[in-house]
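Notes from the pairing session

We agreed to fold both candidates in a single pass and log them together. This is the raw record for the first candidate, unedited. Please don't reformat it; downstream parsing expects exactly this layout.

Candidate A
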Amino acid sequence: METLRKAGKRALGGGVAGAAAMFCQVGALMWMRTTVNFQYAKGMGTLEALRHLYKEGGIPRFYRGVGPALIQGPLSRFGDTASNAGMIALLDSRAEARNTPHTLPLSSLHPFRIFLMPIDACKTILQVEGADGLSKLRAKIQKGGVGVLWHGSIGAMTATFVGHYPWFYTYNFLNAQIPQVDRHARNALLGFCSSAVSDTCSNSIRVIKTTTQTSQVPIGYGQALQQDGISGLLFRGLVTKIISNGCQGLMFSVLWRLGQDAIEARGVRRGRGHERTREDTGGPETRRATSGSRRRPSSPPSERSRSLSPPHSLLRSLPPSLSLSLSLPLSLSLSLSISDSLLSHA
């Protein structure tokens, strides 16, 4: 029970920090995500898509769907980071599981992602169709029923694996290999590299998912593939996506660590406050015992820093033997499965 309590506390800290980081990202990088989804659906180049969107409505056009995105983004990232931080803490507490590959955490995210699919449907069609997006979505619901809001749910489950496993594998692996020199620059580098690997693996599924989700009539994955072709499936919007998600991953990684540090530092200060309160309320014997304990030699600086520093070991547990060479072929093979599509992060 103590292990479960600690894992839950650590998961809450990671999840709150992750949700706050994603909230900041949505506001700063929404215009890039709109451009990417528009490319996925329409097949334009980056500059062409930017010009087209600007002509449709200027700067506000890039922020169509910001409402659903502000709901979906923090909720989805909260589930991702809470599961990753909490489950790794649970596994690390047991010696027999300490060196096992941490592929279990994200397997619990699938029902949560499906729950968010209607929000994602509203966000994506607003990004692609602009002001007419919701009216077109209503017309699609009239033709296909309310179930069209969950189009791509099966793909979303597979996409969680394809998109997130390489991300966390890359982050965990690089976090264990790269020395901590400049902390924030290091986290930024880890976030960018993780996002680039993840996007390369899952771009084809994102194209299918967006095409299926924004079609004005209900279509299947096979029909979406026929519209795009192999070239469109693999490369449509990929460069823009890598830049967009690279900036997003970079920003999220830094903000997440800052938020988690702040949460844990606050907990340490609160614990010290409780100790001082007990000392002040204790009798003479308690105060003498406490004063005597203060005269004891303090622990070495390295031990103190380890006891107060954030749990960096959470993300250092990937064995080098399970590098990206294992995750890339698996992800690419799943990308070629037409029955799957990707739930976008933002």
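Candidate B (folded immediately after A)
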Amino acid sequence: MKQFMVVTVLVFCLTGGIATCTEATPKPSIKQKHTDFYDAFLMLLNPYAEKAIRTKYPDRSYSLWNADILSLKRVSSGFSNYNFVVKVKYHTFTGPHNPPEGPLVITFSVSNEVKILKVEG
């Protein structure tokens, strides 16, 4: 009986006690994080894009699901390091079942406010 107790205590000590199971929370992939930031950035620029598109082409519509950020450049001039120039391509259309009208490229200046620098297309 004494040997059984010694062996049991020894096995218990060597295996680290009672085994516990824990589940790790899955981390989002880098691709998923990129997608979330990408979509959030498009959403923040959306009111300015809508105003620019409605001003130039009042009958056209667009969707954010197929908008593409073409470039994003940090402009380090002046006081702040948080100035950016962003080029976004929006695919516009007129009506739900019509073919696309063509892409529109809008260049934004993003600092403490958002300004539209150029609308091409």
